Structures are given as C-alpha cells and as structure tokens.
Amino acid sequence: MNSETKQCQNCKTEFLIEPDDFLFYEKIKVPPPTFCPECRMIRRMMFRNERVLYKRNVIGWDEPVFSIFPESSEFKVYYQKDWQSADFDALDFGRDYDFSRPFFEQIKTLMREVPWQHSFNQNAVESEYCNNAMDLKKCYLMFNSGMCENCFYGTDVLHSNDSLDLLDVSYGERSYELIHSERCHTCFFSTDLVECADVLFSHNLTNCHDCIGSVGLRNKQYCIFNKQFTREEYLKEKEKFDFGSARVRKELEAKIEDLRLGFPVKFMHGFSNVNSTGDYLRNCKDARQCFISRGLETCAYCQKILFGTALFGAGHDRDSYDLTIAAGERGYENCIGGGYNVRFSWLSVFHSDITYSMNCMNSTHIFGCVGLRNKEHCILNKQYTKKDYDALVPKIIQQMNDLPYKDTRGKIYAFGEFFPPELSPHAYNDTIAQEFFPLTKEEAREKGYSWRDLEERQYPITVFTNRLADHIKDVSDSILGETIECGHRGKCNEDCATAFRIIPKELAFYREINLPLPRLCPNCRHYQRLKMRNPLRLWHRKCQCAGVQSKNSLYQNTASHSHGSSPCLNEFETSYSPDRKEIVYCEACYNQEVI
Questions:
Q1: 481 occurs within a structural domain
Q2: What's the Rg (C-alpha) of the chain?
Q3: Structural domain tally of the chain?
Q4: What is the mean pLDDT of residues 184-203?
C-alpha cells in the first residue's frame, strides 16, 4: 500500500495519508478523511467549551448557575445533579431513521430535544466555579483538571494543591505561574520543570532546587542565572531580590528570556518517548503528530490527552487516531470521552462500539444517539434488537454516503467525517479552538463559524492598574473589596474581563509567598501562559549544532559531540518554526550539553 496525497476540502492544502493510516482506517472500517489533520483538529476543538461560563437559569432549578451554555442556547439545560439523577429516559426522545434526510440534520434535531447538564464538574467540593473537572476540593476557576485541592486559575492541572495560575501541571505544590511542569514544590514564574523545589524565574530544569533565573540545568542547587553558589552565598544573594515587587518581576522575566535564548533547546518538549513526533509528550511510544499528551501508544493526530484513564476510565490510550481530550483503544475522531472502538463521538464516556453519539454514558452498540445512559443497540435514541440494529446500521452508513450533508460553505459530510461545526452549541471564541488557532470575528465569520460578541462590560473600576501598589507589603485588606482594572482594558483578543477581584485565599497566598498582585484578569493571564507554549504545528528542520558551537555562534558547546567539529546532520520535525530565535538542537546534541 502506497502513500497518497489528498487536498483538504476545507483549507485546500495538500496532506499525505501514509500506508499505516490506510491500514488503521481499514481496521476500524472507515474511509480515509477528506479534511487535513489540522482542520480535523480544529473541527473537534470547536465542540469544547472549556473555560467560558455563563450565569443563567436552568430547567427545574430555582437559583441561577454558571453554565457552558448561554441563556440564548437552543439546548434544554438541566442542573448537573438533576440531569444525572433525573427520571427522564433519553429513549423517550427516540425516533425512526428518516432515509429522506441527511443524517446530520436528524441528529441536529435530536440534540436540541434531549436535555443536557449545565456543566461538567464531577465530585466537586466547594468548587462550583470550575468546569470540565473531577474530584476538586476548595478550588476556584479550575478547568480540565482533576484531583486538586486549594487551587485557583488553572487549566490542565492534575493532583496539585495550594497553587495558583497553572497550565499543564501535575503533582504541583505551593506553586504560582507554573507551566508544563510536574512534581514541583514552591516554584514560581517558571516553565518546563521536573522534580524541582524552591525555583523561581527558571526554564527547563530537572531535579533542581534553590535556583533563580536559571536555564537547562540538571541535578543542580544554589544557582542564580546559571552561576553556582554555596548555600550560604546563595541565601545571601537571594535576599537582594525583592520578589514582592511587580517591577522586579517584570525585570526578572525579561532577563530570563534573554538568558533562555542563549541556550539550546531540544527539538521537542517531553521525555521517555519512543519513536514519536509532536510536542509536549511524555511516556509515549509510536505516537505520530501528537501534542500535549501522555501515555500514548501507536496513536496519531491526538491532542490534550493528559489524564486518560484518570478521568475517562479507559483501559489504554492506544491504537487511536484523531482524539482530542479523549482516551481509549481503537478510537477515531472523538472529542472528550473514552472507551473501546468509539468513532466520531463527542462527550461520551465509558463506552464500547459507539458511533456518531453525544453526551452518552456506559453504553454499547449505539449509533447517532444523544444523552443515553446504560443502553445498547440504539439508533437515534430508539431501542432495537441486536439483529435489527446490525441490519440497519450498514443501511444508514450507505445512506450517509448517498445523501451527504452539505454545510453553508458547501463542504460535504458523508460517513467518515466528524460532526460539522454548525452542530456545535458553542461559538468559536468560546472554545479551545480559539486558544490554539485564534481568529478575529471577521475571520471566523468568513470561515462560517459562529461567534460570540463580547458583552459590553462597564464594571465600576475602583483601582486602576497604574495605581495598584507595586509591592505586596503595601497591599491592605481593603483590596478585597476593590474592582481592579485589567491591564489590557479589553483591547486584546483574549476574552478580557476588563476588571477582576482578588479573593481572600488568593491574597493570603501572595502575602505568604511574597508575590506581587497580578495586573491582568484571569482570562488574560491564561492567554499569556498559552503564548509561552509552542503551537500545535510541526516544521521540518536541521539541528543547529555547528560542531563546537551553535550555528548562530551565540552558544559555545561544553562537550564533544559524535559529529566532532563538523555540523550535525540530524533532521527532525519540530514545533519551533524556522523564524524563531531559539537555538534548536537534536536530541543527541542537546543531551550532550545538558545531561
């Protein structure tokens, strides 16, 4: 079987389908895709509202709640606990399959009739302002996170405690503004740390403690800007830094960025990976073009699979293609959920052998269903015998090909494509698609995507950013009653809240650790962290090790490499684009320098 080049029917660019891809599609009995990998990814992401909450009323509940569905949504929305224990049976909404109408038209009708839960926040204890989360205790504005306590303003956080403003952190303790790190304690304003403690303003450290402004260190302690000190010298030097000052924070962040650009970076973030391409991968084997994931095996085109078995209960994350925040085995084109042999499904967990279904749980052998729990052999929420189900499904698949759905831009959706974006209940800028592939309103509308116009916010600002105390020691308890202006003033494309408040536990944390108050609202702070992460794209590049130094002569190698004084010939796929300033080394050259 040979490779085949196809043109994406969405973006019109060419993409390659490899022999292994064809074998996978044949194994799970689906046709090859007509959208390129990136367009498929964006399409799935448009069904994931991770962080945007609306205050609204829901059916059967007296008090307003914060929901992922706005009041204007066409969906029927129940309070989460009511939905999970409701007397209604989703089979009550079942109907016969209409062979005169495209499949996606029929499920679009069904998904607007079956009730949905207002948010997805399982086993939350004093953590009602969180979403897409599980087992949180005393947390606030935590998203896509699980098993955390006393954490605030975080996304993609697992097994962490007493920490604020995190992105992609696991087993974090007493940390702040930490990105893509694990098993760290008391670490602040840092990225890419592993098993570190008492680290500030640093990047890419492993098994280090008591370090400030350092880059690329392994098994070190008492270092400041990569200079080694004794313990006594370090403590004396540390006292010279006034970490409680916002001005000092800004100066240190600028200095560490200059230092970082003078050291080589490995072509790929992650560790313990075998024969894998992509970025931000950990413990993956034979993963191709995957990003921000852990524990994948023989997978391709997957993203944000961080918690897998912890959140979705799937056995293994393997033999799957095109998963976004999903898990399982032999899965394909799924967004949120997990199970075995799950195809083209959204928000469905603990399943086996389901296709084109939404918001279902603990079901098997269902096709085109919405909101089912503990069911089998159902089509459009109608119960069938196994014999009738097995006979009808192939006829529906054939009808999907004979009478495909066409969206408003003329794109064709036959069997083998994920749900059209027109079916998503979320506006583009409410979803993670906007986080990874940001668009303006005009650009989104041009592509046929829905857009939420920002509400005009007229909060009564009581403290303007330029009047905010520079040092935490000068902040009184009265700040808890103030409405603070966001430094972006709503002029960014980051869903700026224009103003924000400081909550009591947050203020106590800043005082205890001696950290300045933030100058941006939580949304804008989240987007600043996102900007420090590489894009979900790959470029083919060559190693920039020129022998005894980097190609741009900014870095002098500290060890001899296998290629001697000649330039390294290794090539790779990397998320560092050619126009970036970083010095990008292959894994062999990088390991010679930092390990």
A1: yes
A2: 25
A3: 3
A4: 98
pLDDT at residue 306, as a whole number = 84
What residues make up the domain containing 523? Answer: 465-527
Q: Which of 287-291, 574-578, 590-594 comes out lowest in average pLDDT?
A: 590-594
Distance (Å) of CA 352 to CA 172, 321, 371: 34, 16, 15
Query: 262: burial class by Cβ within 10 Å (0-12, 13-18, 19+)?
Result: middle
Q: Contact, 411 vs 9, CB < 8 A?
A: yes
Statement to judge: residues 177 and 202 lie in one domain:
yes
* Claim to verify: residue 475 and residue 563 sit in the same structural domain: no
Q: Which helix (H) or strand (E) holds 107?
A: helix 103-111
- Asked if 185 and 173 count as a contact pair (C-beta separation under 8 A), the reply is yes
DSSP element (H, E) containing 203:
strand 203-206
Q: Cβ contacts of residue 50 below 8 Å, gap of 6+?
A: 131, 132, 143, 144, 155, 431, 432
Which pairs count as long-range contacts for 184-191, CB under 8 Å and 24+ apart, including other chains?
186/513, 188/243, 188/513, 188/515, 189/249, 189/252, 189/253, 191/532
The verdict on 476 and 571 lying in the same domain is no
Distance in angstroms (rounded) separating the CA atoms of residues 302 and 547: 35
Tell me the per-residue pLDDT of 515-554, one tens digit each, with 9 for 90 and over. 999 999 999 999 999 999 999 999 999 999 999 999 999 9
- Does a structural domain hold residue 296? no
Same domain for 256 and 172, yes or no, is: yes
What pLDDT sits at residue 308?
59
Choose the final residue of a domain: 266, 287, 321. 266
Query: Do both 257 and 164 map to the same domain?
Result: yes
Distance in Å from the first CA to the final CA of the chain = 42
Kindly indicate the confidence band of residue 316, based on its pLDDT and cuts at 50, 70 and 90: low
DSSP 60: T
Q: Are 562 and 547 in contact (CB under 8 A)?
A: no
Tokens 């918690």 correspond to: 307
pTM of the model: 0.95
Q: Is residue 98, in this structure, part of any structural domain at all?
A: no
Domain termination residue (choose one: 241, 266, 291): 266
